[in-house]
Amino acid sequence: MLLHARIGSWWCCLVVMFTASLHAAEPSASAERVAAPRSADAERIYDESRPRLLQIRTLTRATGSQFSIGSGFMVAADLAVTNFHVVSEWITSSSRHQLEWVSTDKQRGPLAVLAIDLAHDLAVVRLEGRPPEHEPYRLAAQEPRRGERVFALGRPLDLGFNIVEGTHNGLVEGDFREQYHFSGAINAGMSGGPAVNQAGDVFGINVARNLRGDLISYLVPARFARALLANLPSKPPTAEALRQSMNQQLSERQQGLMAKLFAQPLPTRRLGRFSVNGEIPTLLKCWSRAQGSKPNRAFGRDSLSCEVDASLFLGNDLTAGDVSIEHVRVRSNAFSGLRFTALASAQHTLPNDRLSRGQAGFERCDDQFVTLGQGSWRVSRCLRALRKFDDMYQLRLAALSLDTRPDAATGEREALSARMLIDAASFADISRATQRFLETLR
User: Fold this and answer.
1) How confident is the model at residue 12, as a pLDDT?
2) pTM of the entire structure?
């Protein structure tokens, strides 16, 4: 899709990448002489793939102009695979949008969505009109070896169909989603395009890039596309039926995520004299930062940030699935009780609201003073219901310790502000998550 790229929380790695930009116009002879050496494998793969590649456009019905673009690839005479997020605008707003396919030789026609897999960001579409008459792609029987040279194809930024040569690095470690790590530049507009092995068979589907690093991209394993293709309906479902399927799939997926996180008590760790939640291996990752007191600064600040990166793109810049937790501890042996209380109170802020007015209803908040362990805390909680999904809410939660008495041995005062954001979960799961989160605070 043109402007959609998820932001992950993975670290970068060093790769060598080759990109061949192939446009409709052929290069001149002089251009051929000065061009950098090209990969023979990349040329072969691109020549074989070009007739089977598609651009998938979401058009605005009122004007017929492009609203968003993505890529896709043929898997049968009239069937193609793409990302769910490439066609999500039509599913959520079919009265305002329509879908169109465009082949590399400029043929075009309408599209019908047959099936979606929200959890893995996939969709199968049927080409109407006169689909290209070329042999479709084969889905690879197995995953490439780690370190193997592979190729991603698509149409980035509407600049023409491209091929990107990179490295397959296997499944991303410590991620709730099952995705391959591809060391290559998958850019906006290439979403839904194929990633192929050296035989030209599709082993993955382009889905996202990491904006925090260089040449870190993600692919959906082709086995999920194979499963979706095996259960296609005989005729295209209505947009309303697809919306109901979205609703159910999101609910099931988020229930699974919440169960992994909060079905059991959270692990705990120390942050100064406080007990807070710790990491959940391979799922909830935490990073800490400490700022010691300086001669010209009368207080110190430590923070611990944890997140599970499990976001799904649902359309119109709406994502769901992320869970983030942050703890901020302030400390001082120079401030008086009143001044330190003011410093601590300034830390009591809710996580940023990620939803627009059109995506969710009015926010409802409550503020309570509770006892956790032997200490007193102020707890603030806000909920917003997602408009297009039944029993799905965004939670913003903040807790602040209120006991700021100095330590008897050191004279240092400490306070903790704890925050949690959940993008989308049922009311029951949010209640359980709130309980698990607060019971770690002591």
Assistant:
1) 27
2) 0.83
